[in-house]
Amino acid sequence: MVAMPHHPFDPLAALRTPGAPEFDVFVHGTVFLDIIFAGMPAPMPGTEVWAEGMASCPGGIANLAVAARRLGLRTSLAAAFSDDDYGDFCWRTLEQQEGIDLGHSRRFPEWHSPVTVSMSFAGDRSMVSHGHASPVPAAELIGEPPRCRAVFVDLADEGCLTEDGSGWVAKARAQGALCFADVGWDPKEEWSRTVLDKLGHCHAFMPNATEAMAYTGTTTVHDALYRIADRVPLAIVTNGAQGAIGIDSSTGEEASVPALRVEGLDPTGSGDVFAAAMVVGTLAEWPLEDRMAFAALCSALALQQFGGSLAAPGWGDVLDWWHALLADRSSDSYHRSLRRRYAFLEEIAPHVPVTACRRATATIAKRGDLPS
Q1: What is the DSSP letter of 101?
Q2: Under DSSP, is residue 129 helix (H, G, I), strand (E, B) or coil?
Q3: Residue 314 region, left (φ>0) first, then alpha (ψ -120 to 50), else beta?
Q4: Rounded distance, CA 148 to CA 78, Å?
Q5: DSSP per-residue string spanning 8-76
Q6: Is 259 left (phi over 0), alpha (psi -120 to 50) or beta?
Q7: Most exposed of 74, 244, 284, 287 (fewest Cβ within 10 Å)?
Q8: Where are the beta strands (DSSP E) in 223-354?
Q9: Whole-angstrom Cα distance, residue 295 to residue 272?
Q10: What pLDDT score was predicted for residue 100?
């Protein structure tokens, strides 16, 4: 196993004891090479358009893994990698630059890297992907999962969590891991209720509003939240520019957090950043409103950069934003609300050194400033 680079700030430092799990979060999925074009008009057939921004970086499940690691979680990733040049780049970036453990990942010859081209325009995006199924199933790739505090799964991935709760996730849960779940868009738009039956094995479920209402058969975001909260201790529904709402029955909290006012450049990976930040706050045992506000902030910071995984913010970016907010003399209600909502960062700030991790420029030619 490759040693992780030193992180100058550890949000879980107070909880680390001898014999604690080696990793904070373990994830499995497909790593894509993402090629992202942003700031462009909608392309029309037979025409060429120019994009204002371009990024290339590991994508897919790498978005979540990088976001978690940037925020200080000790992260392990299980994925299949090709031995082609794209695979070399993704493996090197994740392991050497980002310090993500790849002990449960493998390289496969004669299998090419999955690729996604993402195009952002007019506040929306379109994607074109190409790839083949992993050469081996998740159970064979992972075997015995490492001891960890949390795992993150896609409910639609049969290789992770079955309705009877078997699979590698069950092994991780038996060792004390909390299971955080999400679910992607159903391309057939069938929205099978059986997908939610798996939530009995999960601690948290964090879909977006469209997915939440579709899978629960409800017509309002709040009704969807209540249906989900009947199934899992921690229920979060994100709703784009409307913010997010959540219920944590394990602590008896309910919260609603508005989105920040930002000019979004590229939404690629911002949902994964939100999810990773929620895992951080939950493992650190923060109040629900603080967890959700932190996740909304990290997602907003990611939206303001071109690129997916390498646009994920680090603690340096978070505190840069907080200090800029405090230095801003604006006295309107919006800025006063921000200062109240994020006052909890003032208690964290003294423990975060000025050299804390900041995001990378998301291109093959540039690297982040994670210390090595």
Answers
A1: B
A2: strand
A3: beta
A4: 13
A5: S--TTGGG--TT--SEEEEEE-PEEEEEEEES-PPP-TT-----SEEEEEEEEHHHHHHHHHHTT--EE
A6: beta
A7: 287
A8: 234-238, 244-248, 253-257
A9: 10
A10: 96
- pLDDT tens across 176-197, in order? 999 999 988 777 888 888 888 8
Residues with Cβ within 8 Å of residue 230, at least 6 apart in sequence: none
User: For 107, how many CA atoms within 13 A lie in the half-sphere containing its CB?
Assistant: 11
pLDDT at 221: 97
The predicted model scores a pTM of: 0.92
DSSP state of 208: B
Q: Residue 157 — pLDDT band, cuts 50, 70, 90? A: confident
CB 275 within 8 A of CB 299: no
Q: Tell me the pLDDT band of 3, cut-offs 50, 70 and 90.
A: very low
- Read off the amino acid at residue 38: A
CA 109 to CA 168: how far, in whole Å? 25
Spell 97-121 as b/e; 16+ CB within 10 A means b. Answer: bbbbbbebbeebeebebbebebbbb
